[in-house]
Write a structure and sequence with these properties.
This protein is about 30% helix and about 25% strand. The chain is built from 12 helices and 20 strands. The strands form 6 sheets. Strands 1, 2, 3, 4, 5, 6 and 7 form a 7-stranded mixed beta sheet that branches. Helix 3 links the parallel strand 1 (about 30-40) and strand 2. The longest helix is centred in the middle third of the chain and has 24 residues, at about 165-185. The chain is globular.
Length: about 425
């Protein structure tokens, strides 16, 4: 049986369609927009293998989110999040943007708070209740077609660890399993709006689970996760069917020219680009680092140095990772620069055309996994339909002959009295 399963997975990978940049444009208006909400399992480490694997099997997927991981696919996962953290950011479009489909995988960090046998049941109950609150919010959004609810993954710890650590992970794992049990019995109230993806039942029996899933899956672990998720998403998610005349990708320039820093960033990968106005040395040296860093995060702050070659008048760029929610600032030596842009890294790992604030980039190459939106200006609204003008004959009350609209005539009639026969006739 195990050999048959492996053969099916291998054939699925072999038969999947791989799209290039030119092919992606053909999908404009026919994509499946998916926002993946979760904790570090959704994005940290090898987390982008999750989206890369899904995209190989479902080429119409377009990932939605305000930040990206190492392959440049957008998502809404934030490290360390529990259910309460997701609830706190759920209504912030800068943290959880709109999408027709959501994938929710959350709760394992809540389960870590179960420190004894007696705490498993109440902690699982609280976690499940919070997950249902998230589902309530997402399902109430009129543009949402479905929410894919991932059952909490089994977790384990390997290596030389203390008995206390082993016990904590065992309690955490069992609390996650108990949470899943509650959810399986209670999400039916959402009807077909919520679709369960049964990660736990598929992954727990695997012999290699403790080496590839652990707390954060490795690349091989995400392959197993994709094998569970892709058939479910493919079955229940339908591609859009709208017409996009001029496709583009929405870009947000996070750089603030006034403060010479970026906005506060969610941890992830970003692309910093700028125009070289004047060169003063043979090489351009750039330092990118976090600013306003709390003491507890100093050891994790970004402080990267890059050496670049560029011609005067050209734009150049670097990709940089930040592990903390803090603004970035840059120092440039060897050149004066302008038109600075900081954006979430795209799948091409190249910068967008320069722009300020939020705008639609129609020039850069589109890559698989990017959501294409309409960039053409909306048609001007049709002029309001007007009532035909009516001629009013000259009367002592009105003076010279006028052309007025019927609603104006009613006002005149009210002012001069209904005894005016000329106005009465006109109103008829």
């Amino acid at each position: 049986m195990k050999k048959i399963c492996l053969l099916i997975i291998a054939l699925s990978a072999f038969c999947c369609v791989k799209l290039g940049a030119s092919d992606t444009k053909q999908l404009a208006g026919k994509q499946i927009d998916l926002c993946m909400i979760g904790d570090s399992i959704t994005w940290w480490g090898e987390g982008d293998c999750f989206r890369a694997g899904l995209l190989k099997q479902i080429p119409e997927l377009a990932f939605v989110g305000t930040h990206t991981a190492k392959f440049g696919y957008s998502h809404a996962g934030e490290g360390g999040n529990g259910t309460r953290s997701v609830l706190a950011r759920l209504n912030d479009p800068e943290r959880v943007p709109p999408a027709r489909y959501y994938h929710l995988l959350i709760g394992i960090n809540d389960c870590a708070n179960a420190r004894s046998e007696e705490m498993i049941a109440p902690r699982a109950r609280l976690t499940a209740d919070n997950i249902k609150k998230i589902l309530d919010n997402l399902c109430a959004r009129p543009y949402v077609d479905k929410v894919f609810l991932g059952m909490i993954l089994p977790c384990s710890i390997e290596g030389k660890v203390t008995p206390e650590a082993l016990k904590r992970f065992d309690l955490r794992d069992r609390t996650g399993s108990k949470t899943n049990e509650i959810l399986r019995n209670e999400v039916s109230k959402y009807g077909n709006k919520v679709v369960i993806i049964e990660y736990e039942q598929a992954l727990r029996p695997l012999e290699e689970r403790k080496t590839i899933i652990r707390l954060h899956p490795n690349a091989a672990g995400y392959e197993k996760i994709v094998a569970v998720a892709a058939p479910v998403i493919s079955k229940h998610a339908k591609a859009d069917s709208k017409t996009i005349k001029k496709p583009g990708v929405e870009v947000n320039n996070l750089w603030n020219d006034s403060t010479k820093t970026s906005k506060g960033l969610i941890p992830g990968w970003f692309t910093l680009s700028f125009k070289v106005n004047k060169i003063n040395a043979s090489k351009i040296n750039i330092t990118v680092k976090n600013t306003n860093v709390p003491k507890k995060d100093v050891y994790r702050m970004t402080n990267k140095k890059f050496t670049l070659s560029a011609k005067q008048g050209e734009r150049t760029f670097v990709n940089v990772y930040t592990a903390i929610s803090s603004p970035l600032t840059i120092t440039v030596k060897g050149a004066s620069v302008g038109d600075i842009m900081l954006e979430k890294m795209r799948p091409s790992k190249k910068p967008s055309v320069y722009g300020k604030g939020k705008f639609i980039d129609t020039t850069s190459a589109f890559m698989p996994g990017e959501l294409l939106v309409e960039a053409a200006p909306a048609p001007a609204p049709a002029p309001a339909k007007q009532s035909p003008a009516v001629r009013i004959p000259q009367t002592p009350a009105t003076g010279a002959v006028q052309r007025v609209m019927p609603h104006t005539m009613r006002t005149i009639n009210k002012a001069y009295g209904s005894h005016n026969s000329a106005l009465e006739e006109a109103l008829r």
